[in-house]
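Below is one record:
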Amino acid sequence: MTEIVVTLSSRNLTELQQELKDLHHARDDFDILEFRGDYFEDDEEIIDALYGLRELNKRILYTYRTESEGGYGSDDDYVSHIKYISAHAPLDILDIQYNSYREAAFISHIKSRSIEVLFSHHDFLKTPDEKTVQSIIDGMYESFADYCKVAYMPSHNEDVELLFELLKENKEKYGNMIIIIAMGERGKITRVAKEPYNSAFTYGCLKTPQAPGQVEIKMLREVYKHNE
């Protein structure tokens, strides 16, 4: 089964109010809300925004993407930020950058509060070799992830084929917790793939792509309309 994640584009609470209206109209087109905390400048506004999103009655995935992984957030403040937000705001899934933080005590604490952990790793320039990608996924699983997400920029079609094969193999190995994305135009096919090459989550947008190769959630719902 593939769940559709809509990545929000709002940069402040005023923009979020309009986006909330659009989300209400499109609520059948997605399963999970991804809120990008690195788009906001104030932690208290982030907390207010997350409480406001509860009115949609959808699961909330909180992501704070740092500059080193293609976002706008501070690498230096990453750990203190996710600790603060996860302690004060309502969320169901926390995206944790695998290379930024993986302390076992924190992971255990988060999971004890019924927050699922999604470990992520991104490279917007290239696709690592098979051994490297597999090592990262294995490490995520061994660090007690509920979901393992890797997203890479393919240089050629062989990179996309490699990621598809790794997705299939790791689904067989670990179950429906694997998310593997090839970014950009070349990798769009990974966002709409069916069994056995579909990820646990596929990420889309309402209107404007928030990552290279993202497509609109309306299209994703057509692909996964029966949510097999």
User: Anything to note?
Assistant: The chain has a mean pLDDT of 95. The beta strands are 3-7, 32-36, 59-63, 93-97, 116-123, 147-152, 178-182, 201-205, 215-216. The chain is about 35% helix and 20% strand. The first strand starts at residue 3 and ends at 7.
